[in-house]
């Protein structure tokens, strides 16, 4: 018999978060993206995208320092996907690990530990193609006091991991900010799912997180403020052990695909992971 469902705490916009003062400096812990990195250079023609191999080639010796030490043929990258949709992170990881294997001869594996989406077809596709260990119907069905989440696959509750999670991904709903929607921002119920994602990062402490939304989330109002500023300030406060980065203008055309769908990415890594990465970049 499944255990009694846990009454989750629905995350709302943090009460302490107010719109930042005009001309406020960027939140501590965030770094600039003023100089586009080399991997944002188009990887090839749309007829044969080679973005993953381009990515591996650009990282070159920096990535090579990790291969054979941190990344080996016995390495499995554990992934948690919220608002998972088409599981594009697993498709991307498949291309990345294949590119690493082709360049360095190391076969890194990736495992979808938990897939969460409120759309049944998305959950069924994830189960059929990526065999997640757990499946969740609702990102809000989590209790951060006792650290549990509901799994519809197991029909019971489980403890959320607090270590061992490598990558957390959440493409939280873009409707509240999309120019094709009502643009209600945090006044839209879906607009508050970002707080649930941030709370999940805080609890599970993944090595790396990636969050995605439309570029318009950074649109400024008449005071020069944006909802992206509020999100960044909150993340800097509740995730002090992370280094954060916003990358804007990411578009499939950069990877050789004939699709215009510009996005903003919020990317972060635990400080010890970033320190390890820099130790290989600057031996």
Give a written overview of the molecule:
- The protein is of the alpha/beta class and 283 residues long.
- It is built from six helices and eleven strands.
- The strands form two sheets. It has an eight-stranded mixed sheet with strand order 1-10-11-9-8-2-3-4, with helices on both faces. A three-stranded antiparallel sheet has the order 5-6-7, with no helix packed on it.
- α1 crosses α2 (88-104).
- The chain is globular, with a radius of gyration of 19 Å.
Which residue ranges are poorly predicted, with pLDDT under 50 across at least 5 consecutive positions? 1-10, 16-24
Q: Can you list the strand order of the major beta sheet? A: 1-10-11-9-8-2-3-4
Can you give the mean pLDDT?
A: 83
Q: Helicity, in percent?
A: 25-40%
Shape: globular
Write the layout of secondary structure elements.
Elements: E1 30-31, H1 51-66, E2 76-82, H2 88-104, E3 109-116, H3 120-130, E4 134-136, E5 142-143, E6 148-151, E7 156-159, E8 167-170, H4 193-204, E9 208-214, H5 227-238, E10 242-250, E11 263-270, H6 271-281
Parallel strand pairs: 1-10, 2-3, 2-8, 3-4, 8-9
Antiparallel strand pairs: 5-6, 6-7, 9-11, 10-11
Structure described in brief:
By secondary structure, the chain is an alpha/beta fold. It has helices spanning 51-66, 88-104, 120-130, 193-204, 227-238, 271-281; strands at residues 30-31, 76-82, 109-116, 134-136, 142-143, 148-151, 156-159, 167-170, 208-214, 242-250, 263-270.
Supply the key terms.
283 residues; alpha/beta; three-stranded antiparallel sheet; 6 helices; globular; single chain
């Amino acid at each position: 018999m499944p255990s009694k469902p846990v009454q989750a705490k629905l995350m709302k916009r943090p009460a302490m978060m107010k719109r930042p003062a005009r001309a406020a400096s960027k939140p501590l812990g965030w770094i600039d993206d003023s100089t586009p990195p080399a991997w944002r250079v188009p990887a090839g023609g749309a007829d044969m995208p080679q973005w993953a191999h381009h990515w591996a080639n650009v990282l070159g010796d920096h990535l090579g320092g990790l291969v054979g030490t941190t990344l080996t043929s016995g390495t499995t990258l554990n992934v948690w996907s919220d608002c998972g949709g088409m599981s594009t992170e697993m498709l991307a990881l498949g291309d990345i690990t294949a590119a690493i294997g082709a360049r360095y001869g190391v076969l890194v594996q990736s495992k979808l530990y938990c897939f969460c989406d409120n759309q049944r077809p998305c959950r069924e596709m994830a189960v059929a193609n990526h065999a997640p260990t757990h499946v969740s119907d609702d990102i809000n069905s989590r209790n951060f006091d006792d650290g549990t989440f509901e799994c519809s696959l197991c029909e019971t509750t489980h403890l959320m991991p607090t270590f061992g999670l490598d990558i957390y991904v959440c493409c939280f709903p873009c409707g509240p900010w999309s120019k094709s929607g009502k643009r209600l921002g945090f006044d839209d119920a879906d607009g508050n799912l970002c707080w649930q994602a941030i709370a999940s990062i805080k609890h599970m402490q993944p090595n790396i997180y990636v969050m995605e939304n439309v570029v318009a989330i950074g649109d400024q109002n008449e005071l020069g403020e944006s909802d992206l500023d509020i999100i960044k300030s909150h993340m800097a406060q509740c995730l002090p052990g992370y280094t954060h980065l916003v990358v804007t203008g990411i578009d499939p055309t950069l990877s050789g695909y004939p699709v215009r769908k510009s996005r903003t990415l919020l990317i972060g890594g635990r400080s010890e992971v970033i320190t390890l990465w820099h130790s290989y970049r600057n031996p």
